[in-house]
Structure formats: C-alpha cells, structure tokens
C-alpha cells in the first residue's frame, strides 16, 4: 500500500496545480504591454506596425522593401543608384565607421537616409558631427523613462511650429550641440533641445531623429499624432522609387541588448512560476517546487545500489568545419551564387583588415599596391580579385563559372599570402 502513496500525492498536487492555474488566469487583469520592440510586425504599443504599414500611403509611387543586411550589401537598393530612401528606426544605432562610409556614399549619389534612434554610436556621432546627449546606458529600464512626451516640428520646411504630445514613454534624447553651418534643425523637444536635424551629403540628405518612440503605434494612433509621422517623413524626396525599412540595426543590438529587453523575454514556464494569487503570493511556483522536492525525495528513498554505466566517449568531431562545408554546399545547391560570392568577398576583406591592417573602404590602385607590398602576391591576381568584388555590387546574377573562378583566385591568394 505504501508504494502507491507517492503516486497519490503526485496526482493530488497535479490537480491542485491545474486549479491554481485556471483560478489565476480567470482573475488575471489586463496589463499594458510596455515592451519596446520597435519591430514592424508588432502591434503592441511600442511596436512600429502602423509606421511601416503607412509607408505606401506616404510614398505611393515607391516600392517598399525591408532589409536585414549591413550597409553596402543591401539586396533591394543599390549604392550607385539615386531616388532611394533608407529608413532606420531602432533603440541603438551602432554603426561603425565602415558602415557610415557606405551610407554616406549612398546619400551622396542622390538618396535619403532617415535615422530615428535613442543612441548614436561614437563613430556615427563623429562623422555626422551631431553631438547627441545619449550614452549607452544599458542599465536603464523602461520603468525609468518619463511618462509623457511633447515634441514639435518647426520650419522650414514646415509652415509653422507644430506641437504633438502623448502620455507614453520618452527617451528624452537630444543633440547637445550642432554646427549651424552644416546642420538644419527640423524639430525640438519641450525644452527647445534639437531632436530632429538635417545634414546635406552630396546630392542627398541625412536626417537624424532622436525620439524613435514617436514612430511607435502608441504615439501615431494617439489623437492627431499621425500628422507628426507623415510630416516628419515628408522631408524625404517624394519622387523616390524605392523605400527600404531597415532592420539591420534593430537586430544588431542583440549582442549589446539592454536589460529591459532581456527581462521582457520570459517564456511561458517562467510566467507560470511567477503567477500570483490575490494575496500577491506565487502559489503556483511554491506548489511546483514542492512537487519537485517530493519527487526527488521519492527517488532518493527508492534508489538501490547499482553499477553505473560508463558511457563510451566518442572521438571529438570538427563540427565547425562540417558546419562551414554544409553552409557553403547549401548556398551552392540553391544556386545563390551571388550571395555566396558576397560572403567570400566579405571574409577576404575582413582577412585583409585583420592580418595586414589595411583599410578596405576604398578598393583602388593604392589599396592593390599596398596589399601587394605586404603579401607579395602578384598584382594581376590582386587586381582580378578587387575587380570581381566591385563587379558583384552591380551585377544581379552570378553564374557558377564566375563563382568557381573567384574561389580559385581566393585560394591562390591565401596560399601565397
């Protein structure tokens, strides 16, 4: 009879857990979702679904695309074409100098770059000469942010100062100082700090905005704030043929992710453990750990001395090499030769930067001469590699023959260098 006691206890505890769960669910109140994602597919208050879905309304003659690749490797816009727009909305704009050079070159050819972010990297701050007030305060949580925001647009290009407010969160980021000779102020916060500026870049423009929460669903759908969103984006050339909603920097933040984002990403199991009853006690969690303790006690009491099986340890495999071969074979089998060539080219340039300490932003005769001097590789071979990398940017399709030739050129270089 005693051997059935643990099973009876387990069944009773399981029933208690089910009752507690459904009781907590029925009494659980609706809570405002304060998670700041700035993702276009999120319809939560601080997502950007409304902003993205209305792009076609603002730019009716343009094709709308999304991008997750680093600058210079875009698949829907070209760095050499004009009448294109790149829109970046992210908590932290962590562009390095190489990425900034690509975006500046893109703008100089007659395109617009629109950036809305709380934090601007030191490299971007230096190049754009827009001294922002935000530091990378990763310990700041959403609960620490102010509970209301008031911002305004001012002319030109706007006819008169337009003020917009909402009761949600704000980052309160602004430009501590700007160069009035090169920078035009388009917007301010309630303390008259510049938070929206315009800089010329060749034939194009850079627009930098420091309150990305103004592009969230909560702000846009509050009263007439949609007007702010439309007017802010109206500074972009209305004749653009392609508009890209960039998500590269939204994903790049993962390696530096702020605590508020990590804390919000709780799975269903942790959510169940944190359920509280009317007395603000975590009854479900207590019952669960009590069940675990009883099961552990049962196992310990019922254990018998047995010879432990000693597993055979297999010889370690080179999983990294297998992974690289698998990925390369996957791209080749899919016929995605251009993407594979771009990754080979990116690895080559990174190899040159790391091993020979040469900048790879400009692939000209001077770069070829310096690389030949440091590696001893033939100039004709280096010129062929550089020419093919430049050819990749403008050529839409790469055949298998070109892929094979490029692979042979790189293998020859690595052996000689």
Sheet having the most strands: 9 strands, mixed
Number of strands: 11
The topology string of helices and strands comes to HHHEEHEHEEEEEEEHHEHHHHHHHHH
Low-pLDDT stretches are: 136-142, 254-266
Annotated CATH topology of the largest domain: Rossmann fold
Indicate the CATH architecture of the largest domain.
Answer: 3-Layer(aba) Sandwich
* Helical segment count: 16
Structural class: alpha/beta
Q: Can you list the strand order of the major beta sheet?
A: 1-11-2-3-10-9-8-5-6
The helix content is 40-55%
Strand coverage percent: 15-25%
Number of separate domains: 3
What's the CATH C level of the largest domain? Alpha Beta
Distance between the first and last residues' Cα: 78 Å
The overall pLDDT average reads 81
Question: Rounded to an integer, what's the Rg over CA atoms?
Answer: 28 Å
Q: What form results from the Cα inertia axes? A: flat
């Amino acid at each position: 009879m005693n051997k059935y006691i643990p099973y009876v206890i387990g069944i009773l505890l399981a029933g208690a857990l089910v009752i507690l769960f459904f009781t907590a669910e029925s009494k659980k109140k609706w809570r405002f979702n304060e998670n700041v994602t700035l993702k276009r597919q999120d319809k939560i208050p601080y997502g950007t679904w409304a902003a993205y879905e209305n792009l076609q309304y603002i730019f009716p003659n343009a094709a709308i695309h999304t991008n997750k690749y680093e600058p210079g490797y875009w698949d829907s816009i070209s760095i050499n074409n004009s009448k294109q727009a790149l829109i970046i909305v992210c908590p932290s704009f962590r562009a390095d100098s190489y990425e900034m050079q690509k975006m500046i070159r893109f703008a100089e050819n007659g395109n617009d770059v629109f950036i809305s972010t709380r934090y601007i990297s030191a490299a971007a701050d230096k190049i754009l000469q827009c001294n922002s007030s935000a530091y990378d305060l990763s310990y700041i949580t959403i609960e620490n942010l102010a509970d209301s925001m008031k911002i305004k647009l001012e002319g030109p290009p706007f006819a008169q100062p337009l003020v917009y407010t909402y009761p949600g969160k704000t980052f309160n980021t602004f430009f501590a100082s700007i160069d009035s000779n090169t920078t035009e102020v388009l917007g301010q916060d309630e303390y008259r700090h510049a938070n929206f500026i315009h800089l010329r870049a060749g034939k194009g423009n850079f627009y930098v905005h420091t309150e990305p929460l103004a592009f969230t669903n909560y702000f846009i759908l509050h009263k007439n704030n949609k007007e702010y969103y439309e007017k802010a984006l109206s500074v972009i050339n209305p004749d653009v043929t392609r508009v890209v909603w960039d998500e590269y920097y939204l994903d790049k933040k993962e390696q530096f992710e702020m605590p508020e984002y990590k804390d919000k990403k709780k799975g269903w199991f942790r959510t169940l453990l944190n359920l509280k009853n009317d007395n603000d006690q975590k009854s479900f969690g207590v019952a669960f750990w009590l069940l675990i303790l009883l099961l552990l006690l049962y196992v310990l009491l019922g254990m018998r001395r047995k010879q432990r099986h000693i597993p055979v340890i297999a010889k370690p495999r080179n999983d990294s090499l297998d992974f690289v071969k698998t990925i390369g074979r996957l791209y080749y089998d899919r016929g995605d030769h251009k993407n594979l060539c771009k990754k080979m080219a990116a690895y080559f340039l990174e190899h040159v930067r790391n091993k020979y300490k040469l900048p790879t932003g400009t692939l000209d005769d001077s770069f070829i001469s310096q690389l030949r001097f440091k590696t001893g590789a033939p100039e004709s071979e280096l010129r062929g590699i550089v020419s093919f990398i430049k050819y990749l940017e403008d050529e839409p399709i790469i055949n298998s023959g070109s892929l094979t030739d490029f692979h042979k050129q790189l293998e020859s270089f690595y052996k000689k260098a």
